[in-house]
Amino acid sequence: MVDPDYYTGKVCIVTGANSGIGYAISEELLKRGAIVYMAGRNRDKVAAAAEQLRAHGDRVRPLVMDVTKQEDVQRGIEGTAAEAGRLDLLFNNAGVGGTIPFEAATLDDWKTIIDTNIWSVVYGVHAAVPIMLKQGSGHVVNTSSIAGIIPPPFQALYSLTKYGVTGLTECLKYEYADKGLYFSTVCPANIATPIFNKSIDGQAHGELRIPDDAYPADRAASLILDRVAEHKGIIVVPEEPYTDLWKGYILGVPEVEERLVQMARERREAFEKGGSYF
Question: Is the dihedral of CA 139, 140, 145, 146 positive or negative?
């Protein structure tokens, strides 16, 4: 049973808060009584997103911060902690997708996705951990992906970054277990968010549309916050059927192996025809 007051008064930063999972998490945190700094690099978009949640009063606060720039992240996180007096939770959520054949990817594609999906998390953790250690408490929640625990074909670039986020977060979970700090990895499957319209190079590699089976973002946020409050390490969203799929992949279950091979065939065919991957 999740403590209904767990988030009350807690100071939180959420990156990528303009839309998608980041916005949904921000809204759910506010509903649960938290103080939320909604971070994004575009001042107008951050202000607009915060304004939509203005019913929560001064507990919603816009934070302009480009997560691909170390100085911005350092300044934003340290400034928030100084203003609020502490930092209880950091949600490193900003990221871009990447479903593209390996042979079609350029080195610029690799750099873009690594800078956004890996370095942004490193910058966030690097800035937040000293603050939390000094407090003797804190929780870092890094958004990985189902592609950070299961390797989907045609997502080599994306999966590389998300496996990196999962590995980093899991290592830190154990490294700081005796220091009062918690680390969680959120591994979303298909969630109904604009990430499906965010290609890594601005070009269309097939028709990237929101899948028909996508899980609602508000339900995802609620599940994520419940599991974070339980201090769970890896949080798969939605839990079913993806938890069983993950376990099947780890154990080498033949049906899961064949499913991934078949996915590769279908995506290759779709790419060659210029159609949808989903």
Answer: negative
- The b-or-e profile of 207-235 (16+ CB within 10 A means b, else e) is ebeeeeebbebbebbbbbbebbeeeeebb
The pLDDT tens digits of the residues spanning 139-157 come to 999 999 999 999 999 999 9
Could you tell me the end-to-end alpha-carbon distance of the chain, in angstroms, rounded to an integer?
36
Q: Which CATH number fits domain 11-273: 3.40.50.150, 3.40.309.10, 3.40.50.720, 1.10.150.20?
A: 3.40.50.720
Of 158, 182, 242, 277, which is the active-site residue? 158
Give the residue extent of every domain in the chain. Answer: 11-273
Structure tokens at 74: 């350092």
CB < 8 Å & 24+ apart, contacts of 74-83: 74/123, 74/126, 74/127, 76/13, 76/37, 76/39, 77/13, 77/124, 77/127, 77/128, 77/131, 78/127, 78/131, 80/11, 80/13, 80/37, 81/11, 81/131
> How many helices and strands in the chain, by DSSP H and E?
9, 7
pLDDT tens by residue, 252-270: 999 999 999 999 999 999 8
Q: Is 158 a catalytic residue?
A: yes
Amino acid identity of residue 224, one-letter, is I
Q: Distance between CA 104 and CA 266 in Å, rounded?
A: 17
Q: Residue 101 has which token pair? A: 């054949």
Q: Quickly tell me which residue has 């279908």 as its tokens.
A: 266
The values of phi and psi at residue 131, to 5°, are -65, -45
Q: Could you give the CA distance from residue 59 to residue 51 in angstroms, rounded to a whole number? A: 12
Q: Report helix angle 254-273 to 242-251, nearest 10.
A: 110
